[in-house]
Amino acid sequence: MGFFGKLESKSYIIGILKGLTITGTHFVKNLVGLGDRPTIQYPEQRRKYSDKFMGVHVLTKKHDGEIACTACMLCATNCPAECIHIVAAQSPNPKVEKYPAIYEIDLLRCVFCGFCEDACPVDAVRMGRDYEMAELSERNFVVGIEYLKDRPQLQGKNISVFHEPDKIVKRGEKSASAPAGSKFAKAS
Amino acid sequence: MAKITINGKELTVADGTNLVDAAEEHGIDIPHYCYHPGLSIAGQCRMCYVEQEGNPKLQVACNMKCSDGLKVTTDSARVKDAVKWSLEFHLVNHPIDCPICDQAGECGLQDYYMKHGQYQSEMHEDKVHKEKVVDLGDNVVLDKERCILCSRCVRFTAEVSKTNEFGIFNRGDRSVIGTVDDKPLTGNYTVNTVDICPVGALTSKDFRFEQRVWFLDSAESVCNGCSKGCNVFIHHKKGRHIYRLKPRFNETVNSYWMCDKGRYTYKDSNYDRRLTHAKLLGVDLPHDEAISMWAADLNVFTSTERMDEIGVYLTPNQTNEELSALLELFVNKFKITKFFAEDVEGLVKADSAVDNFLLRSDPYPNSKGFLETLKKFGVKLGSLSDMAQSIEKQRLMHLIFVVPEGQRQITQLTGVAEAIRPDHFVVVLTPNRFAQELFASSLSIPTLSHFEKTGTVVNHGGLAQKISSNFKMFKEAFSIESVMKQLADAQSSGRKKERTGS
Predict the structure, then answer these.
(1) Cβ <8 Å between A72 and B100
(2) B186 in any annotated domain
(3) Is the CB of B212 less than 8 angstroms away from the CB of A70?
(4) pLDDT for the residue numbered B300
(5) Which of B132, B210, B215 comes nearest A97 by C-beta?
(6) Residues B84, B78: Cα–Cα separation, whole Å
(7) Which of B62, B91, B120 is the last residue of a domain?
(8) What is the pLDDT of residue B356?
(9) What residue in B sits closest to A75 (Cα-Cα)?
(10) Can you tell me the ipTM of this complex?
(11) Would you say residue B162 lies in a domain?
(12) Domain count, chain B
């Protein structure tokens, strides 16, 4: 043992001091407001997300207020998480043949991949911007047509809830004709 | 036999076979819409073009009979081009509303576009719009826009169902298919027009918007609507819900067709009409407990030699294997002598085709097999009125009802059910929720419905047909064979306990 044993048993002190220096520096910097803090004062402060952010879905509406969805179930077919449940029915509107009597998305199952948006042939389902979800019951995360098309969070957000069939881009045409939010432009 | 050459390959086929069929037999696909092997030849669709050696013009394969020395090419550039632009003509006025069309997924236009089309459309004119959602009676919906005028339905009503309802009206691009004044279809064979429609012009009302076809799985079975025993495909989703029946080709029984009545027999197999749990007095109980309770009560009768107080009700809905399993246990082991059923012999004697086509008057799929199996076990049948009387006079104390799905037995058994008093022990083996409700005080054990069964049924002509569906809708429902095995096990273990006194 002797000398070497003693040194060995005390060597951790240097490590501790080094660590404490880093912690202390950050502590002092943050205390006087010089630090580059990664945290923000949520919910008063919010981050700006990309326009490509994929949050809770939106069911688009036609200008008469009816939803654009035709219940073709391509979104449900394409969904890797199997979270979309649709029951199709004959529409009460004589001009519309088929519509979804039930359109439910289980947000807890959903992986927000956006495949439903890709699959939709009529631009009826889009990925929205909302990401704040808190409910008391699991059942409340299964959201239906009313929530998906008319929830209060959609007001004033950077997303159009209106179905725009004239902006659907045909194959071969230049997509430059599509508006700034060309994310929603579809190849038909 | 004739030796023909298709695409340079020498094939031997039966003389006079249609070229489309002969090619399909040998794995060569000739696209076609209007040709149907069960109907006459129209040559409407011009999709089955082939190049025949020695003939300067392209020929339609559906109108060619195979004979020695026939040489055709189906894959030359000329043929491919012709087929491609024939297809564009079909799609000129087609609305392409696949998202709302029930045919999507099994549509001839979709399939052939991906296989033979893939063109950039050269049409700049607006599409001609026609009537959509035309109601044609209880079973069929017509969409005139989607029709490609192949005339299969016209020929079906003219040649097979002989109702002569469909026709092609107007000329040129205003031609539409329809019935006179859009009158509803009549007869019992209307949904066959939906099956043969290669596009979504005729769709089934029952299946309308119910499910997309690519979600459906298929199983093979035999219809249980009558003694004809039409071969069917069951289209179900993951074995949880049956959505429709489709006819399966069998030359000796039903050819390509089936009747509307038989088509809807699947509804009795679905959740809302099924007994999904073993029940005693209407309260759920575990399956094992139900079996052991039944075995215990049977033991009381066997140990006191009161087997003549046990009555069994059977129907010819059971397969031969189920009946053998039932009778093996009841007759050979328990020595039960009293069996009751509807007058099956009378039904078999009076059996005839109701409308000179498929549907027969005997409502049971296995009457012949039923009578044969009973004969093998030496069982004599009593009538239902006998049964009701014996129950009333307390001569029968332990009653076993094997009730299939459907309403027929429910109405038949109301008289018997009324005679039952609280001191009778009633066991109902059934997939049918209504049977449990009829015998409210019974011990009900769920069994498989017809479309989940595996076994043999014998049709009116004595043809034994195998059914093997290979799916099960509820884990609580067992086949009658396995219920019988469980009962035998429970009964023998119960007797052992009695003997050892534990």
Answers:
(1) yes
(2) no
(3) no
(4) 87
(5) B132
(6) 10
(7) B91
(8) 86
(9) B99
(10) 0.83
(11) no
(12) 2
Q: Provide the token pair at A31.
A: 């205390």
- A70 in Cβ contact with B99 (< 8 Å): yes
- Chain A residue with the nearest C-alpha to that of B143: A97
| Nearest C-alpha neighbor of A70 from the set B138, B131, B110, B104 | B104
pLDDT, position A187: 40
Give residue-wise pLDDT tens across range A117-146.
999 988 899 888 888 888 899 999 999 999
- Amino acid, res. B14: A
Candidates 3.30.70.3270, 3.30.1340.30, 3.30.750.24, 3.40.50.300; CATH matching A57-184? 3.30.70.3270
Quick one: pLDDT at residue A151?
85
Which one has a higher pLDDT value, A170 or B389? B389
- B149 within some domain: no
Q: Is residue B172 part of a domain?
A: no
Q: What is the CATH number of the domain that holds B73?
A: 3.10.20.740
Mind giving me the DSSP string for B192-240?
A: HHHHH-SSSSEEETTTTTT--GGG-EEEEEE--SSTT--EEEEEEETTT
Give the per-residue pLDDT at A157. 60
**From B133, B209, B214, residue closest to A88, measured CB to CB:** B209
Mutate to test the interface with A, among B209, B214, B238 (most CBs of A within 10 A): B209
Q: Domain ends where: B70, B91, B112?
A: B91
- Mean pLDDT, range A48-58, rounded to an integer: 87
> How buried is residue B362: exposed, middle or buried, by Cβ count under 10 Å (0-12/13-18/19+)?
buried
Show residues of chain A in contact with B214, CB under 8 Å. Answer: 77
- Half-sphere CA count of B225, side-chain side, radius 13 A: 21
Q: Which two tokens stand for residue B481?
A: 């064979």
Its domain, for residue B488, covers: 271-500
Query: Model confidence over A61-110: pLDDT tens digits?
Result: 888 888 899 999 999 999 999 999 999 999 998 888 999 999 999 999 99
Q: Domain segments of chain A: what residues? A: 2-32, 57-184
pLDDT higher than threshold 70 for residue A185: no
For B10-49, what is each residue's pLDDT tens digit? 999 999 999 999 999 999 999 999 999 999 999 999 999 9
Write down the pLDDT at residue B286: 92
Pick the range with the lowest mean pLDDT from A182-186, B320-324, B467-471: A182-186
Other C-beta atoms lying within 10 Å of the C-beta of residue B169? 13
Q: What is the pLDDT of residue A167?
A: 55
A181 to A53, A157, A184, B405: CA distances (angstroms): 13, 13, 6, 57
**Residue indicated by tokens 């107080």:** B309
Query: How many Å apart are CA B477 and CA B458, to the nearest integer?
Result: 24
> How far is Cα A168 from Cα A158, in angstroms, rounded to an integer?
19
